[in-house]
Amino acid sequence: xxxxxxxxxxxxxxxxxxxxxxxxxxxxxxxxxxxxxxxxxxxxxxxxxxxxxxxxxxxxxxxxxxxxxxxxxxxxxxxxxxxxxxxxxxxxxxxxxxxxxxxxxxxxxxxxxx
Length: 114
Prior knowledge:
The chain is mainly α. It is 57% helix and 5% strand.
């Protein structure tokens, strides 16, 4: 999706330039090339922005998936040394967790080993 939006932004920019050149040749008005280039830049910046938003969402989703699977936290703490471990399923938990999100165990948390 990112590549599609980025490509669409490039195409919009090129279309704006092409429309400006053609309009300038046909109407013999040099102001139109500037207008179409500005329109192309504005239209392409929308798609470039959407591409960046999708990229950020994919990054956030990958971090949340890693956190859900217990491989690392969103802050990047992959060692789990500051967290707790569930005594029932041995899943690494964050320090602020009151119960295990996997097995819903809410007692006998042990400190995780380094």
